[in-house]
């Protein structure tokens, strides 16, 4: 099992253990922490995410990009279901927005935090919590 599949599985297990959280403030904090720790367990995935668009996509064929994006979308759906289980207040479109923002955040944050002070998990959890809270505020 490669990085995205293993990471998706870690997120599913971590979020299932949280159960359903109706308080979005508490839920955003718990979910962000678990997702950040799941990324930290998959260092290779974080490295690949940081190289995905500037390097890997440049060298992939159109068919290769399409296959990769389809696979990534499948993992996004899997994680969205896990997010929905933990934070039922969000809708499907908001989970998709969060997933895309999360991947972009990891891609940019990983090389910066690893090169400086290795505060990746704390920084990622903080940013993901803010993203989740902003998403829930948009609903209101």
The helix/strand series, from N terminus to C terminus, equals HHHHHH
Number of domains: 1
Identify the overall geometry: globular
Secondary-structure-based class equals: mainly alpha
Subunit arrangement of the protein: single chain
Head-to-tail CA distance between termini? 39 Å
Classify the helix fraction into a percent range. over 70%
List keywords for this structure.
single chain, about 140 residues, mainly alpha, Tetracycline Repressor, domain 2, 6 helices
Chart the SSEs and their pairings.
Blueprint: H1 3-18, H2 24-40, H3 43-59, H4 62-86, H5 92-116, H6 120-139
Helix pairs in contact: 1-2, 1-4, 2-6, 3-5, 4-5, 5-6
Question: If you had to describe this structure to a student in words, what would you say it looks like?
Answer:
- The structure is a single chain.
- With 140 residues, the chain is an all-alpha fold.
- It has a single domain (3-139), classed as Tetracycline Repressor, domain 2 (Orthogonal Bundle), CATH 1.10.357.10.
- 86% of the residues lie in helices and 0% in strands.
- It is built from six helices and no strands.
- The chain has helices spanning 3-18, 24-40, 43-59, 62-86, 92-116, 120-139.
- Helix 1 (3-18) packs parallel to helix 4 (62-86) and helix 3 (43-59) packs across helix 5.
- The protein starts with a helix and ends with a helix.
Structure summarized in a few sentences:
With 140 residues, the protein is mainly α.
